[in-house]
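Troubleshooting log. The previous structure file for this entry was overwritten by mistake, so regenerating from the original sequence record. Sequence copied from the archived sheet and checked twice against the printout by T.R.
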Amino acid sequence: MPRISDKKKAEINAELWRRANGTKRQRWQSIQQQAYDFYLDQQLTADEESSLQDAGMPTFTINRITPVIEMMKYFVTAKNPRWQAVGAEGSDTDVAAVHSDIADYCWHQSNGHSLYSHVIQDALTKSIGYFLIDVDPDMDRGMGEVVFKRVDPFDVFVDPMSTDFLFRDAAYVIIKKDVAKQFLMSLYPDMKRKIKKASGSPEIGNAFSMRSVSSSTTIQEPDVGGEAYDPLTAEEDDIIDYYEVYRKIKVPFYNIFVNVPPSEQEMDAIKAEAKEQLTMFMKEVEVGLKEKEQSLMMAVERGEMIEERAKLEMEKAKAEAKDAIQQQEQVIMSKIIERESRVENTVVSELEFKALQESAEFNKNLVESVKFYDTRVNLSCSIGDVILYEYVLPCTQYPIIPLMYQWTGTPFPVSAVTPLVGKQQELNKAHQIMIHNANLSSNLRWLYEEGSVPEDEWEQYSSAPGALLKYRQGFTPPVPVQPLPLNQAFFQLTTVGRQDMEYLSGIYSSMQGDVGQQHETYRGLLQADEYGTRRIKAWMESTVEPALEHLGTVFKEMAQNAYTAQKVFRIVQPSALQDQKEVEINIPIYNDFGQAISKWKDYGTAKFDVRIVSGSTLPVNRWALLEEYFRWYQAGLIDDIAMLAETDVRGKENIMKRKSIYAQLKNQVAEMEEALKDREGTIETLSRQVVQAGIKDKVREADKEISSESMKTEAQQKYLRDTLRTQVDSTRKDLEREKNVAVKEFKLGLKEAKNT
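Regenerated output below.
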């Protein structure tokens, strides 16, 4: 197949866009532009506005479309979408668990909530919104990040033959813009020469809007399409047509199985292990030979065998042992090599496979190769007649994900505004007629004969209160022209039209805070929300959530190709009281020699499915739901932790720690455990005291017995002492008496002697 030049490729891209921008595409854009204008309250065409002004009628509008669209957008984008990954096998479970965190990280990096709101707004007002998944190679200091982007629906041109609501069967998808050259140079600094020499034919202007651009109260993107200036020179910059063409192609791949032999270091380790095992086997053989020799000698001694037979058997045993050692050495080596050698399965492109086949070592270790074709997306970017770049994306589906409102089986869906345009025009016309009729009633018109009144005076004072107007005699007096009264049914048009718009859109006044239409009870509010949002939920289930799931699948393919190096993601938790959450992928695993031999949480090769969490973006009626939670809490169906978790009370985490039933029960259990410990200690102390009291009682009884015995002995001794003392005293008295008697007798004898 001959090679196509870059200039020819650029021409093909431009021609393909011109064919995609056919009459059907232009008619669709014209209808959706009208819907978008009505959403922006630009509801009168230039001709209608001019006609109303000429007729003296008001040109105001009663915009009921914008509030409806804003409410629909709120219901769909109240929360961020959440994806859940399910691993294909056990080894992929760890990686699948962190995929949701990686998606949240990239969503936050891309300001995803605002982006999602704009895409939903495009779907509601322009019938379709587009996500674009891209890789910014300059983010994270050149490591690259996967980012979510939005593309204007009017800049996207899809294969008209596509019949899939996600455009998975489209032959091509084109993004076409008219951009300034200096802006392109800032985006692609390495391609300045190509951009400078490029020439094209941009289409500037908004040919699809019927509003009056000069008197419009809004300025849209096409209104300023031709105003581009060089920021360095302040001169007018050139505008050129820019094309990004996405095509699905079949790319040849090879599924190869390669035997990976051990390295030199691994071989040294294998030999050392084999030597150790062989040494142990040789020791076993030597012990067996000695046992054999001993048994043969005992047989010779018992006469059961002659000595020559014993020697012959011993020689045979030694020869067998030698052969066994050699065989065991080979078996050990082969087992270890087989254990260390592994067959790796990988998928490579055809060019990579041909390059690998040039190596003899690769051909030697190649076990099997299977050729197959896989779908890839080819991206060709051109400006004017110059190709900027072209490469194959690592995804099997287009990175441009559509989100439609009402699919028609074609790439041209219907917006939520389109069915409301007729009713909005009816309301505008009804109010304009009623105000015009009121103006005519308060500012009378007059029929007069020419020359009968001073015209300047009547024009100035005819509607002034208390004015005195004169007319000339001889003429017929002027006659006031009263406007015809409006039919009473005409005044009901506005009420019926408003009700019809609510019915068509599914957004009722009560859902927008109209207290006159709301139910008084919280249960009634919940019921009204449940019934009133069923149409939005049906759209969510049939269109939005499948599109978001497809978005998650394409993001997975792009992210797995982008995040191949070790990386740590820091994710801010929703609660400010919690710390940042860190997720790490592609963690290298090293061998004993410091070489990276594998990866833990290998994100690039993991296989898992991505599912959108159903209803993750829908809101709830918080006050009504809180009332229901309170009822459930009062009924005992839930605890106070579940109740507090749904409230907006400030510092509820600390409150739950202090006031929750579980916390109180935990404190009570802790107090009871402490009391139980005290009681156990008291019981143990009392037991010791009882034992000690028993011992003291026994000692006291022994003391009593000893004391009683001592008392008995002491009493006896006292009695004996008293008896002896009495006896001594009586003896002493007797001796004293005898002494006194003797002294008296001696004195008497001495006296008698003197006398004699």
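The CA atoms of residues 403 and 544 lie 6 Å apart. Archived copy saved in two places this time.
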